[in-house]
Amino acid sequence: MKGRKLLMIPGPIEFEPEVLQAMSIPTTSHVAPNFIESFGNCLDMMKKVWLSEDGQPFVVSGSGTLAMDMAASNLVEPEDKVLVVSTGYFGERYAEILKRYRADVTILKSELGNIVEQNVIENELKKGGYSILVFTHVDTSTGVRNDPKILGQLGQKYNVLTILDGVCSVAGEEIRQDEWNIDIVLTASQKAIGVPPGLALLVASQKAMEKWKNRKTPVLNYYADFNNWLPIMRAYQERKPSYFGTPPVNLILALEVSLKQILSEGMDERFKRHKKISRAFRNSMQALGLSILPKSNDIAAHTLTATYYPTSIDGNLFRKKLNEHGIIVAGGLLKEIKTEYFRVGHMGAVNRNDIISTISGIENALTQCGHHCNLGKGTSTVLSELS
Ligand SMILES: *Cc1c(COP(=O)(O)O)cnc(C)c1O
């Protein structure tokens, strides 16, 4: 494929050919026995990918924002006190969503490129009255990574439910939902799950389901209401037909293929691979004299990297040149510094060759933009890291 480009943005990502093939199978009925089996398999496999034996999985047609909306609308009742720990763009979005459902939202914002320190969160929770703690695992606007294990412990200690926006992390970053006490872990298909856009996915703990069951007021979102979807998920889990809203049949078939691939790699292997690839990528950027947005490597995401352009170059021109080398990366997302940095996704099916091509493309484009870098330095760094 001469015109082929490599899609290295933080979702949609490059998809495996077998996953894409499932998208072109003749569409069957959503109550056909083989489709019921596939949907049921997806729900069973999600529990393994999320490492949540006890959780209730949901798969609904929509994007990641719907998964955020679904968690918020089902768990929040008006006046509920919710603490949002924000590390960037998607934390802000979550606060907006929660306010729609009339939550009493307090937001703790990190400094640019940093996380909110544990003691700051703890001091806020100590004030009492909170029922939910919400945080983003990897904020896709900054490439900053929170530690869900610590936040889960805080949730347990202060008896609040925890919601993890894992849209840029599930199936890439380490998440152990049961062990780490995270009540809702949500994502979308087009990121590390490795399926074209269109599916909102979440797994809810029994504690989260209890909060929903004990609601005194109706869920303020018709489409997202667990009342509509729980019977459907249960039916597919029991391999029985059911209907509320027509599921995106081919996306579900593609999800089945992808989840199988994820589990055949193995979760521990997968977490390790993402760590290794991201470290190689970061080190190559640093070898080229570029700096990354996260304040330290310990809080840098393993699924994407946000890197500042050298001040001497025009970011749009750089991305255009890179595109001419066949590599598509994303520009900035955070309003304050939108034109100052770019983002490279390296999750899911990403492999060594993709990373090497991307880094050599970056070196080339930087040089073409007039930035003096030691051509080959990034590539040799990645080669030695990923040998
Ligand atoms: C992409 C993303 C979202 C939004 O997902 P959409 O599918 O675009 O609605 C939310 N949170 C995070 C962390 C993301 O990376």
Could you describe the largest sheet, including whether it forms a barrel? 7 strands, mixed
Rg, Cα atoms, Å: 21 Å
Q: Supply the number of structural domains.
A: 2
Please bin the fraction of helical residues.
40-55%
CATH architecture descriptor of the largest domain: 3-Layer(aba) Sandwich
Trace the largest sheet across and list its strands. Answer: 2-10-9-8-5-3-4
Sum up the overall morphology in one term.
globular
Stated plainly, the CATH topology of the largest domain is called: Aspartate Aminotransferase, domain 2
Arithmetic mean pLDDT: 97
| CATH class designation of the largest domain | Alpha Beta
Q: Give the distinct bound molecules.
A: pyridoxal-5'-phosphate
- Put simply, the count of helices is 13
- Low-confidence parts, pLDDT < 50 over ≥5 residues? none
Q: How far is the N terminus from the C terminus?
A: 27 Å
Helix and strand content put the structural class at alpha/beta
CATH H level, superfamily name of the largest domain: Type I PLP-dependent aspartate aminotransferase-like (Major domain)
Task: Report strand %.
Answer: 15-25%
Order of helices and strands: EHHEHEHEHEEEHEEEHHHHEHEEHH
Structure summary, number of beta strands: 13
Topology:
Blueprint: E1 6-7, H1 17-23, H2 33-49, E2 56-61, H3 64-75, E3 81-86, H4 89-100, E4 104-109, H5 118-126, E5 130-136, E6 138-139, E7 144-145, H6 148-157, E8 161-165, E9 184-188, E10 199-204, H7 206-213, H8 226-237, H9 249-265, H10 267-287, E11 304-308, H11 315-324, E12 327-328, E13 341-345, H12 352-368, H13 377-385
Parallel strand pairs: 1-12, 3-4, 3-5, 5-8, 8-9
Antiparallel strand pairs: 2-10, 6-7, 9-10, 11-13
Helix pairs in contact: 1-9, 2-8, 2-9, 10-13, 11-12, 12-13
The structure holds pyridoxal-5'-phosphate.
The site of pyridoxal-5'-phosphate (PLP) has 12 residues, from α3.
